[in-house]
Write a structure and sequence with these properties.
275 residues, TIM Barrel
Amino acid sequence: MATVRIGISGWVYPPWRGSFYPKGVKQKEELRYAAQQVPIIEINGSFYSLQKPASYAKWHDETPEDFIFSVKGPKYVTHERRLKEVETPIANFMASGLLNLREKLGPILWQLPPHLKYDAERIANFLKLLPHDTQQAAAVGRHHSDWMKERGTQLEIDEKRPLRHAIEVRNETFKDASFLDQLREHNVALVVAESAKEWPEFLETTADFVYMRLHGDGDPDEGGYGDGALSRWAKRIRAWLGEGRDVYGFFDGEDIKLRAPADAQTLMKKVSAPA
């Protein structure tokens, strides 16, 4: 049976302290608290720099048994290298410790920059590099750079598990049937992202799961998502679930700030309620 998890992108936001996080919750306790309120959180720090094995192990241990993390791929791969010659950077990422999340490792998100245009060959080469289970991820990680040995690596797995990937594009040139075919061939999800029309919106499904990122619908009176907007998303999610697709959704705390956790909780309730 298909499942849905709606959560938040990141968890360290000062405006949430005293609102989402009750007074008295220390910063080091914020993840533990947030993971009790939503069933999934997107790790953003991995986008800016490689995290360490000990951090992933700590995050695993601080969260409930049925909790899941999504991990954002490094901007060095997507923004700096622009997906070109990224075999070693991807190996470094796979070796950096995310396998310490074990059963809590959910999809990996690859977010492309707005200026990157669709190039079929570049996308094809990139997709071929992505491991689709933890055993493959460990094998890829063994090709990491020598300097990674000093910072620490983790290539042991406790079990072979499927590994999912989603790609978020922000350029109109990706509205190409060939691109969708490439994603479907590799079972990679095209991210459904709402950004108040700042970037193009895609609703096509290309994998056995859906990955949503909700940055805001542009209604300045709401400061987040209104009831009507959340009801529309709940209807879409129920349709995807009806197709047998798992759904992972995230409200962007950086853009929506105070309302993101509440919107995530409300949307989960709407999806679960009778249509």
